[in-house]
Amino acid sequence: MILRAQQDEVATQALESWPEGAEILLDAINAGEVPARANKLIGDLKNKQVDQYLKNNDGATGVLMALLDVWKHQRLLKVPKNQLSALVAIGSELKDTALAKLFRVAMSAPTRIEADQAIEVFQELQSRKKLSGKSRAVIDGLAREHGLPEDDPEVALLGSAFVGNKWSVVPLFSLDLPMLKQVLESKASAQLIPLIARELEATHLELTDAQKNALGAAMATLDDPTSWQAVWGVIKHRIPWAG
Questions:
Q1: pLDDT of 163-216, one tens digit each?
Q2: At what angle do helices 177-184 and 189-202 cross, to 10 degrees?
Q3: CB–CB of 112/81 below 8 Å?
């Protein structure tokens, strides 16, 4: 342990004194040529050094995965949009904790991740049968921040992300019907369903009969009569049995 600490200190000093040290380190991390513990050396770099590297190296997934391990949430939110897209594309390759951190970025408002990408991250997370304790803690902590129940909070977080980012609801209807029902009936429904209604009114979004039925059932769960009536008035002409 002492030897390792000394090695890390030498590496940190080299980064500070060697003009090209940051780029060489990031190249090595990106290529997987250094042990995972070297990732923490990114914390010794200046933000602008990492930002410049990401700008010059599109799709630097090795570095991006290291950033998920090292950087705090607020800093991850500032990762360029194209680089976040690269992370979403390799979501299936991420370890549970890294995926949970990416999910937190995707569920934030504002976020640089697009709605369809947020759906991708959500679906990958749902496909993991049992998350590790650390990754579970990331998601449960996010649920607490939003005042959501910690019992399967992912669906409510997804609904909240659509509301907070004012995304088009079209990607939401790419979910399979059971999952769509869960999102529509989650704690975010009071804000999400009016958002859906406004888009139905303003666009030619077409829903299947099963999706219409799911939306109608979710409307019945709204506690606020005023919201319920407003939504019903907008979409009843889009649901055949609503009259």
A1: 999 999 999 999 999 999 999 999 888 889 888 888 887 787 788 889 988 888
A2: 110
A3: yes
pLDDT at res. 11: 47
- What is the distance, to the nearest Å, from the Cα of residue 136 to the centroid of all Cα atoms in its chain? 14
The encoded tokens of residue 199 equal 């888009």
Q: Which residue has the tokens 């997934």?
A: 61
The SS3 of residue 52 is helix
Q: Tokens representing 149?
A: 């129940």
* Overall pTM surpassing 0.90 (yes/no): no
Structure tokens at 173: 């209807």
Q: Provide the H-helix boundaries in the chain.
A: 2-17, 21-30, 47-56, 61-70, 73-76, 81-89, 96-106, 115-127, 133-145, 154-165, 177-184, 189-202, 209-219, 225-235
